[in-house]
């Protein structure tokens, strides 16, 4: 590490957590093993034309069979925390009803393996793999799915809650709702904006209903959810730009933040979208805004908004990032300051008591030449500059308690299949060999430097 990098590591408080994140469907494989039921992502990825080159999660990084090796890898990197998700269809193959003990056993062993290495588990209960049977009964368009989720959450918390002290109910409900039900690029692949708004409400309700159930089953736990938020900046100073900036932010950020933290949807949102409000029942917003312990922020990039002559729907604002900026392989602009700005805003405007970066990372076109490591300088800079932005946010008062790299290892990148690699560990999908990239080595050194500073003399 350079001198600057050492002082960056030293600037974090001793209580700060360093981890990496994954999700069940993206890494596990073994989709038909040990009683796992099908999920909407099995069905979606098996539908021709939905995922790049017809890739599916059937094998993925084979983590289901290589769990012990992968935990050893985390220990080698020096992670103190690991965020993973539980596949609902492994626990309840049909979404409700009969429990599949073998599914619970797998996560039980994973938690024990992590704790044996002093790695704290951060468990996401839903990272997009809805049991297919529930989809056939209406999926997130049905209120019943919210109640089914709360039952499922309690089953998991009862089994793991003596050892798991950090729970994340949902990962990125914005994506589940809008990409899954309006754009159709994610499962279940529907293209209906009203459906997305309705699904969003049932996802939030699922979260709110699960909160007391998890708390009751997991004593002294901390609980939250992870949102993908992206700050919006004006492209120029025209009044149309200010107007559309507000609309874009309402859709991208406040749609879910406001019901969770203010107990109401943004006043104009559904009207401006020219849609009906979702089916809100008496008491729903109280359930949704049940206090939680922390918010997980998944941050990748920002957007720059340009006003249009005709006022657009909030989900159709003109966004275009600068041509002279640098971009990742996803064509997402690299903009670390956006992470600082969003953290400070969450602190100042929403008074959130504890923040985690539950995902941050980048895809680059890594290639392995069979050697000891893989050169990925773009990812090293990305991580360093975003970690520096977190330090800036802390300096400006944001209560940030931890940072998770997306991702521990290369994995099934949803609609992009295995074409996009986010890992700090490379996965050779032929041999399933893992190779630590230079970014993984850099992150390990960063964590080691952090511990050096805080080690009692
Ligand atoms: C996450 O999704 C997922 O949780 C994870 O499973 C996935 O592998 C990972 O990221 C990488 O894709 O204009 O700022 O709104 C992130 C999904 C990324 C959705 C950025 C919207 C648009 C950028 N999103 N995105 S912004």
UniProtKB/TrEMBL annotation:
Pfam families, per database record: Glyco_hydro_1
SUPFAM superfamilies noted in UniProt: (Trans)glycosidases
Family that this chain belongs to: Belongs to the glycosyl hydrolase 1 family.
Keywords: Carbohydrate metabolism, Cellulose degradation, Glycosidase, Hydrolase, Polysaccharide degradation
Reactions catalysed according to its record: Hydrolysis of terminal, non-reducing beta-D-glucosyl residues with release of beta-D-glucose
Active site: 172 (proton donor), 359 (nucleophile)
Enzyme kind, highest EC tier: hydrolase
GO molecular function, one term: beta-glucosidase activity
EC number(s) reported in the record: 3.2.1.21
Protein name according to UniProt: Beta-glucosidase
InterPro entries: GH, GH_1_N_CS, Glyco_hydro_1, Glyco_hydro_1_AS, Glyco_hydro_1_beta-glucosidase
GO terms, biological process: cellulose catabolic process
Gene Ontology cellular component annotations, sorted alphabetically: cytosol
Entry binding sites for substrate: 26, 127, 171, 300, 406, 413-414
